[in-house]
Amino acid sequence: MASTPMDLDRPERPASATLNIQRSIPGPSGASTNLSEVIANYRPTKLFKREDLKDGRAIPQVQSIDYNDDGDLLMTSNADETIQLYHVKEGRHEKTLLSKKYGVKLAKFTHTSSSIIYASTKQNDAIRYLATHDNSFIRYFEGHEGPVTCLAVHPGEDTFVSCAQDNTVRIWHTQTKNWQGQLNLKGATLAAWDPSGKVFAVACPSAGTVLLYDHANFDKSPFGTIDVIEQCRNIDTANLNKGWTKLEFSNDGKSLLIGTRGNGHFVLDAFDGTLKAYLHKPNGGTRRLVPGEVGSSNGSGGQGSPLDSSGECCFTPDGRFVLSGSKKDVLVWDTRAAPNEHKVLAPTYTLPDKREAAVLAFNPRYNFFATADQELLFWVPDPNS
């Protein structure tokens, strides 16, 4: 796996030098960097090229990006049925894991960095639990009868939620192969945990709602329902009950982000469900398909067969900013800024790059984020800006 020097990653730097990455939130092991001071200065720093591809094969699309709890490892799942691991601070490729028999998408770290879960794309719709040190399976989580559309890992426990096109949402614990609970909901759904782990949300695009469940009483009816159609009908009629790509709570638990493939994303109040802001994307969304969309392909990932989206937007760890990929450039919104009278908020900053950012994720511990379409790109603040 080769990397291309870009901007800050100059060839004259020693091979052992690390990227300009500092703690983005206070921590005992390092300095704290206020994101508001550097958010406008992020630049693409290192591009990883897939030089392991032979025989002129097309470069596969990256389907998802995830970080371990400590933020020092980054993982991608790829359309060529591989999982790629990277060391963040050293800016290098760590290893390649193969899943040729079952395929792979939506790969997520558990709370042990040496084990991951991911959804299958071949043979069946099971979720695989894998030890990364020797590429051996620990357990299969079987039960879904349709492609998995979302995996959401509990922030502090070995529990996760899965959503699938079989009209079910299931709750699992990694120590047993049997699901702990099941919700019967219509359509391809998305899920997210609040930062306390006491609540999880399920987005139901076909109904235009987000359902809020008490983790301790998930077998009961949701304790809250957010009516996205009612809240956002005057903003974006095209994506009120379709086109949703991402569901995420902010780390302060106050806001809920619904990413869409349309001309903007919705930021809602996590307590009363009211619309805080519509994050307008001037150039629209990426070319990725919506989870569950007809025509989704998990093949070679060429430009003629786009993958479904695992989300191109997210909150920063401080909960203040939202970043989003697009057909070019990365867009940044300051959610503390006042939207206009129609609740529309224009991007606060545009971080320039000519490549499409079809998937995007911000590091939970360091001032670092990554984007990808067919190749992975590391972003850090430019110290000279």
TrEMBL record:
Belongs to the WD repeat SWD2 family. WD repeats lie at residues 62-96, 141-176. It is found in: Nucleus. Pfam families: WD40. Keywords: Nucleus, Repeat, WD repeat. This is WD repeat-containing protein 82. PANTHER family: WD REPEAT-CONTAINING PROTEIN 82 (PTHR19861:SF0), WD40 REPEAT PROTEIN SWD2 (PTHR19861). The keyword Zinc does not apply.
